[in-house]
Amino acid sequence: MSPNFIHTYVSVDCVVFGFDHENRLNILLVERHLDEAKQIKLPGSLIYSDEDVDDSAERVLYELTGIKKMVLKQFKCFADPSRAINKDDIKWMDEEYKHHIDRIITVAYLSLCKIDHKINSTKYNTVNWFPIHEVPNLPFDHNKIIKESLVEIRRWIEIDFSIIFELLPKKFTIRQLYQLYSALSEKYIDIKNFHKKISSFNYIVPLNEIETNVSHRAARYYKFDAKVYKKNNTKLIK
Amino acid sequence: MSPNFIHTYVSVDCVVFGFDHENRLNILLVERHLDEAKQIKLPGSLIYSDEDVDDSAERVLYELTGIKKMVLKQFKCFADPSRAINKDDIKWMDEEYKHHIDRIITVAYLSLCKIDHKINSTKYNTVNWFPIHEVPNLPFDHNKIIKESLVEIRRWIEIDFSIIFELLPKKFTIRQLYQLYSALSEKYIDIKNFHKKISSFNYIVPLNEIETNVSHRAARYYKFDAKVYKKNNTKLIK
DNA sequence: ACAAAAGTGTTCCGGTTACACCCATGA
DNA sequence: TCATGGGTGTAACCGGAACACTTTTGT
């Protein structure tokens, strides 16, 4: 065996997006403990020897939120040989996994979560939402992963518009959907035309319920009907 | 260290597409040798201990074709624990790498090549084009990888139309481009309208040269101007 | 002359865009 | 009564789809 072939550990890191009440994209970060210090990072784990990566990501998401069957999407393998050469990172891995790890490859996943959903982590003591533009410096190449995940979530919504509803409450107004879509697609759309278009889709179902306590005409709540959507599969933008 | 974390080799496999003169998508496959028997497979390699995956894929492509700087795109990590449990596959790995490998994770890449380009492999004795619909049973999960690569190449062209020209000769007719596009996008487009649209793009440059020896009106040759394209970046389909 | 494909022109249609206008509600 | 946003209507516009027509070349 040529000694210069990689023989390594492989991990999974998950970027979980949420959409807050101030119309900002957020991501979930967890706390890691190094000596007595705390540092935040992306949730992740080494994969098990009998696990597929998708299963591993599903496990990480469950350990993170307590939710089973979250939508998820693998988007990139990060394998820069120097992605884990920071001393603190190596030290943390030594402590966390009780073994010296000199190089580590990670497979990054995207996931989506309603921001009001109760987070019930079975693994982490501290799990918090961070607005995407307020994410501090993170260990390893986690900042890079997050940056690329933003490109990926936009692409994902182009491919499958329906996943956008994973970020909204079950009942939502068209304005909420508009603001989420705007936060993701960045190109301007007239809200009136957006409204007309969205409400013309048969998988956007109007409810007999409107907003309360708003200082203007109350907006109607709608829900997303996934079954109808699957039959038609209309893209928002052709 | 918990013993149930994966500690493994990581490889790269490349699906290289070409477009033949009968308007079929082809892929490059190589021969592997097991005992005295030959078997064809996707080109690939374990990654080196100081290599990033992208670099590794670039190296595999160079060893395969002799071409430097081929376009490439990582598209998925395949890590099913049972993707390498076939006895022949294990035996082959034992011989190829002189070491027993019980599990292997691979990162799959897409690449594109003009089918008339000379193939000058520095590693493989036998490298051949296979029409996509005539690919035989391959070892590991290579058939699965190829299947998913087809979905991916279509997506890639949606995102960046210009990469389609990697599959065409430098001089091409609009009909050639039409047939390639049809092979990839599968939805019918009227060739007249396609012609009109394509020739309206300023990055599709008409040449002072037309077909010869055709039994109908000779078509004009065009070339693709990447610089102009980069400035405008028009998508074929909005 | 005919076949086959290049290349151009024209019409039609549907969806997007840009608004104007009215409605409902709280302050 | 005013400000704010909900919700509807309409007309202009633009790009794609369909297809007719002319051109060019080999057989």
UniProtKB/TrEMBL annotation, chains A, B:
Domain called NrtR DNA-binding winged helix: residue spans: 164-224
Alphabetized Pfam families for the sequence: NUDIX, WHD_NrtR
Domain Nudix hydrolase: start-end pairs: 10-146
Protein's name in the database: DNA mismatch repair protein MutT
Species, as recorded: Chryseobacterium formosense
Lineage, highest ranks first: Bacteria, Pseudomonadati, Bacteroidota, Flavobacteriia, Flavobacteriales
